[in-house]
């Protein structure tokens, strides 16, 4: 009789743990959905890409990680925290953003970005697949604050030259340069 009782208790524990794990999975899925819904729209045009074409999966991955990068960038600039940059930025791009956030913190001025979307045009994809250069036409609203006081709002098209490189499980923004003038 004891073995049936022990088995029943063990099964109840397992069922309880599975229920907790399932509810945690639902919460994690909801969080992931919330992040995905707050990502800026990114369209990638790789029709005239040279010297080699892009695979569909690669294009989808680049667009997703570029959207994550801008989401992280906006959050880090608004909060003044460099740890909000996440893993999407590396190299020159990350160094410049860390410097910009540090400068913001020193002056007390911070930026809020309302990101209305990006149209990426792939202009170069290396033969070995280790680098892609993109031209980004970004519709973003930039609000500049001194403390809580709004100083300026700019809602216009910005143009960026972007260098992305692949990693083990993602594409990284290695360089992000705003081009002078209006596109």
Descriptive report:
- By secondary structure, this protein is α+β, with helices and mostly antiparallel strands.
- It folds into two domains: 38 residues; 137 residues, Nuclear Transport Factor 2, Chain: A, CATH 3.10.450.
- It is 43% helix and 34% strand.
- Strands 1-2-3-4-5 form a five-stranded mixed beta sheet, covered by helices on one side.
- Strand 4 and strand 5 form a beta hairpin.
- It is globular, with a radius of gyration of 22 Å.
- The chain starts with a helix and ends in a 5-residue tail after the last strand.
- About 9% of the residues have low confidence.
Residue-averaged pLDDT, rounded?
Answer: 84
Radius of gyration: 22 Å
Q: Biggest β-sheet, characterized?
A: 5 strands, mixed
- Which spans have pLDDT < 50 for at least 5 consecutive residues? 21-36
Looking at the structure, the CATH topology of the largest domain is Nuclear Transport Factor 2, Chain: A
Please tally the helical runs, counting DSSP H or I stretches of 4 or more residues: 3
CATH architectural name of the largest domain: Roll
CATH classification class of the largest domain: Alpha Beta
Distance between the termini: 80 Å
